[in-house]
Amino acid sequence: MLTILLVIPILLALAIAVAPARLAKPIASFGSLAFFVMTMIAGFGFDWARSADFQLAQSVAITDGLTMSLAVDSVSMLLILLTGILAPLCVFGSFASIKTRPKTYYAWLIALQAPIIGAFAARDIVTFYVAFEFTLAPLFVLIMLFGSTNRRKAAIKFFLYTFVGSLMTLVGLLYVMWFNATQMPAGAFEGAGEWSFMIATLQHASVQMSGSQQAWVMLALMAGFAVKTPMFPVHTWLPLAHTEAPTAGSVVLAGVLLKLGTYGLYRFVLPFVPDAVMEYAHLVAVLAIIGIVYAGLICWVQRDVKKLIAYSSVSHLGFCVLALFALNEVGQAGSVLYMINHGLSTGALFFCIGFMYDRLHTRSMDELGGLAKSMPIWAFFMVFFTMASVGLPGLNGFVSEIMCVMAAFQSGATWGVGGTAGPLGPWYAVIAGTGMIVAAIYLLYMVGSVVFGPSKSPHDHHHGAHDEGDLPKDLTAREVTILATLAFLCIWLGLYPKPVLRALEGPAAANVALIDQARAQRALAEVPALVPARESVVVIEESRP
Question: Global pTM?
Fold first, then answer.
């Protein structure tokens, strides 16, 4: 099944490339629906009662000694399901905005799904890294050819930042492979003492490294995953890429591509270098909090609606990183749930802005106002998804955001309340919580300026120079269907997140157990140094006749 999910987008992209241009849209539409159905079938075939186990395992021999290994636990499966849901919505959401080069556009948009699935399902380093890197090419083309006026700069900056960062991650992974092959005794565990690409094998080896070795490997891994997330201060490529990308490109970028960064932190950084994570978690948490508050303040002064939502992603994903490095089960589960919820609500906001831009050809809040009067259906969805992004109780953003903040609060809590053994504490949660207040301010201000208030039109500023095209003033049935689908998921995960949270319990506990085991081993290693004199006395006494 996982191999099929990899092959379908590639075959569809090739079919679009060789078919006549008039067939590009139908092939992409039916193909993306077929891809969605296959992800649902994979989800039904997954045993959610064994959520921490890697299932649906497949191995495909590429060459002698090189095998593509695929398997998923519940975290990977949920992110694959999110990818499957967004794929047809992105295709249908592009019908009105893509007028030229449809073959190129839909072929690359569909092809992008293959490396995303490969990265989430990979169980060997080669498959993961190749898939991780191949996500760059389709999005680079989509931004470069179908973006806005500053698309060239955005595409180049996106490629350079993410490519250079991922090269550093490759160096870290290669070092772990070298350590396993040359420093581990054969037979210590499966694959020890040999050159292995398997993630499970390398994880066993990496935890045996010294603290300084783990620190350098952590730095290398963070270089790529922090850029992809993106974390402060390597976030500057994202707002430009989001703003200049076509609507579907922004939705895919916010929905799943950014999650490759947080997924990398979850899958590689935490289990590979637990000693270094314990040592430097507070530093990563500080950077995450700076991103939360700093990006929120930038959003406060933005006048471009799309750029505002782009910067909000930096702030929101800071909560994901903060929760991961709280190193407790609440944080692990809350972070993954936030990844899913952010993909739904922020992706939907990019759809809303894209549909508005198709009609009014502007994203400036100085030129927009009172759109609820002329576009009431659009206004309803815009307010709805803004509330989901703010974290209104009853919608999806509330549960995951509260879990992330509570995870930081409970991590090593010192205010006389029950906490978990972790490196953070209440002050981290309090400062991060101010980001929630700032988010409410700038998002509600944006809604008040664009949706409500005095009516303004771009015609007032450009004297009728804009052509509104052949679209009706308000949303079409196609656009309503796209947004209603995402709205249903936001309500469901807001009112009844229990099935997803239960599915995340096993992987969250497994990740925390690795950290706890590393902490216990480090404590045992320090014990002999504390009592050397007493041990020597015992030896002398036992040697007397």
Answer: 0.90
